[in-house]
Recover the amino acids of this structure.
């Protein structure tokens, strides 16, 4: 009997293709919107996370100055680090994969007629490891070059393109400020960072070369530290903080005059933000699903009025209230499930297109597909019930004489 | 479900009305459509109900068809007091014992003749193949073999009414209620319908209660009941009322 009722409902839907498709339009759009929003949002979250982790896995950034100054903020008052601080961290903190003391400033890079404003970074070979850089050509610095402060450099992909175009830069000499510098390596491109800056636009030189011949002091701007895999970055952070407080002679009451930023924390914060945005967008889309449900109720009510006579016939022929109720309820649920399925297909297509357009990874979330399908079926039950009950409670005599 | 016990066919008349009244509205606005009807219909009878508009014959038919219940008095269907049954119980009673033919045919639109005839069997929970077979037989019995897949819009009035009759008799009901079955048809079509009804009354022993305005149609019945102002005015065996 239940199967029969489903068949009756399906037959009614088939008989009114136009009306049925208009009825489910709201659900289709609602489900598609929810799936698209959530899928594209998930992709964006994933994108942000992977961009930040491309800066370096397990990376901690140690800078002088207090944390609320923010990146690049004023560091006045706080003493700069020296090479000895980096050495102390490397020696006294356990569980480290590498420590890279960093200094630098902006310079003009010149090769032949080409001229490019860029940043110079002075560090050691650990810099490549902690920041996840891979050489696409050439070699790292030798120990001798690092010790002697030789005029050699490894250039980012952007510099290579801007100064050399199609030529092979390795072995050629570029001019940075007053010094001539031989290119020994080229870095593989990382592209834009999550913050929109070009990560490939810099020149890496041995720390000592930059200190002596470019900036002219022994200061270190920051220290990048990479923890070994499986080592807690929080623990490493605490150890570094304790060590630096000691080295900088800070009393118990004094605040840190440096800060250690844990990249994983930043990843968490940023992905948390995009997740929240995704949830908000999803919620807005869910409202349209609800509106779609009201659309179904509207059409079902019209349908009940239009089919009053049919209901009268069914009641006269011995249909029980329950059966008429089920017929209309199933009709509503079948319609909304149909809408749900079409919406899922559309949503998947739209999110694939959206992910492509926004250049974020396309991550299909089975959970949200299941949820929006169940929700659309639920909408059918909730908004189909009222019209169905109205149909079931019709007086057969009046219904039969309805024109 | 309170159903008549089996084997009681001859113990009770199929239909027995005692002092049935039906009042619409209440208080000062109350209108009395039936004012104490006594009527007994036995198995195999063929009754024509006549009377002018507003005489209460439609109200009486609704009550007899278990679509409505009396305001007072008793209606026993095969000994079962219908006034005490719930809406759903009356639906079950209609499903298993009654067939209906309406003046306006009342077929489902955009639905084939076969599917229309199958409808009462669907509600009886009959399996599809058996149902189809019975529907085919019923359509054949009303002379519509070959028209199974036509929708009402593709059929003439007479054919539509035959589909309606096939639908009414497909489940072999105890009583067939026909409310002006020939009201929308010309006289030739009307005679065909009446002949069909007579055949089902005679051969399948289906009790028929038919409302009609037309004395010619009423002449097909075995008994004529004439309503006037909510009461039964005359009750005569066939042939006696021709005016």
């Amino acid at each position: 009997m239940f199967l029969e009722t489903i068949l009756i409902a399906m037959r009614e839907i088939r008989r009114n293709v136009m009306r049925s498709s208009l009825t489910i339009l709201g659900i289709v759009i609602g489900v598609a919107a929810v799936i698209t929003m959530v899928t594209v949002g998930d992709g964006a979250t994933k994108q942000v996370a992977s961009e930040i982790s491309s800066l370096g896995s397990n990376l901690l950034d140690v800078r002088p100055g207090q944390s609320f100054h923010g990146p690049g903020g004023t560091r006045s008052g706080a003493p700069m680090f020296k090479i000895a601080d980096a050495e102390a961290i490397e020696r006294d903190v356990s569980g480290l994969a590498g420590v890279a003391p960093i200094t630098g400033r902006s310079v003009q890079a010149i090769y032949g007629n080409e001229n490019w404003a860029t940043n110079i970074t002075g560090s050691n070979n650990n810099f490549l490891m902690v920041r996840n850089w891979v050489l696409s050509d050439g070699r790292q610095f030798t120990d001798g070059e690092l010790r002697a402060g030789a005029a050699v450099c490894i250039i980012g992909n952007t510099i290579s393109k801007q100064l050399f175009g199609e030529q092979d830069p390795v072995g050629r000499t570029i001019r940075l400020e007053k010094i001539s510098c031989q290119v020994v390596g080229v870095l593989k491109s990382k592209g834009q960072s999550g913050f929109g800056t070009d990560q490939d636009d810099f020149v890496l030189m041995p720390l000592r070369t930059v200190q002596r011949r470019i900036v002219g002091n022994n200061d270190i701007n920051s220290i990048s530290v990479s923890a070994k895999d499986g080592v807690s970055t929080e623990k490493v952070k605490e150890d570094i903080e304790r060590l630096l407080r000691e080295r900088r002679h800070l009393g118990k009451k004094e605040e840190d005059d440096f800060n250690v930023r844990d990249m994983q924390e930043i990843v968490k914060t940023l992905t948390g933000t995009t997740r929240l945005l995704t949830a908000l967008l999803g919620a807005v889309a869910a409202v349209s699903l609800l509106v779609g449900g009201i659309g179904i109720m509207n059409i079902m009510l019209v349908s009940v009025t239009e089919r009053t006579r049919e209901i009268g016939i069914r009641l006269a022929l011995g249909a029980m209230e329950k059966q008429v109720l089920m017929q209309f309820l199933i009709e509503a649920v079948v319609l909304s499930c149909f809408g749900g399925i079409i919406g899922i297909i559309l949503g998947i297509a739209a999110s694939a297109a959206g992910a492509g357009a926004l250049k974020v990874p396309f991550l299909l979330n089975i959970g949200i597909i299941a949820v929006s399908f169940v929700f659309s079926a639920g909408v059918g039950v909730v908004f189909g019930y009222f019209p169905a009950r109205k149909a079931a409670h019709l007086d057969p005599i009046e219904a039969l004489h309805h024109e | 479900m309170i159903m008549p016990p089996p084997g009681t066919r001859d113990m009770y008349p199929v239909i027995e009305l005692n002092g049935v009244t039906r009042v619409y509205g209440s208080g000062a606005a109350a209108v009395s459509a039936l004012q104490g009807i006594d009527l007994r219909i036995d198995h195999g009878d063929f009754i024509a109900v006549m009377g002018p508009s507003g005489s209460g014959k439609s109200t009486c038919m609704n009550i007899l068809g278990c679509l409505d219940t009396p305001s007072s008095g008793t209606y026993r269907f095969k000994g079962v007091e219908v006034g005490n049954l719930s809406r759903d119980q009356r639906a079950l009673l209609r499903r298993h014992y009654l067939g209906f033919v309406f003046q306006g045919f009342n077929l489902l639109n955009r639905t084939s003749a076969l599917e229309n005839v199958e409808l009462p069997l669907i509600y009886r929970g009959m399996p599809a193949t058996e149902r189809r077979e019975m529907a085919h037989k019923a359509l054949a019995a009303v002379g519509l073999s070959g028209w199974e897949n036509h929708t009402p819009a593709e059929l003439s009035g007479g054919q539509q009414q035959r589909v309606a009759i096939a639908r009414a008799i497909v489940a072999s009901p105890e009583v067939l209620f026909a409310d002006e079955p020939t009201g929308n048809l010309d006289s030739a079509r009307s005679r065909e319908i009446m002949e069909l009804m007579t055949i089902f009354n005679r051969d399948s022993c289906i009790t028929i209660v038919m409302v009609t305005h037309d004395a010619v149609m009423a002449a097909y019945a075995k008994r004529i009941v004439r309503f006037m102002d909510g009461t039964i005015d005359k009750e005569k065996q066939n042939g006696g009322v021709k005016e």
About this structure: Chain A touches chain B at residues 1, 4, 8, 11, 15, 309-310, 312-323, 396-397, 400 (CB under 8 Å). The longest strand of chain A covers residues 96-111. The mean pLDDT of chain A is 86. The longest helix of chain A spans residues 263-306.
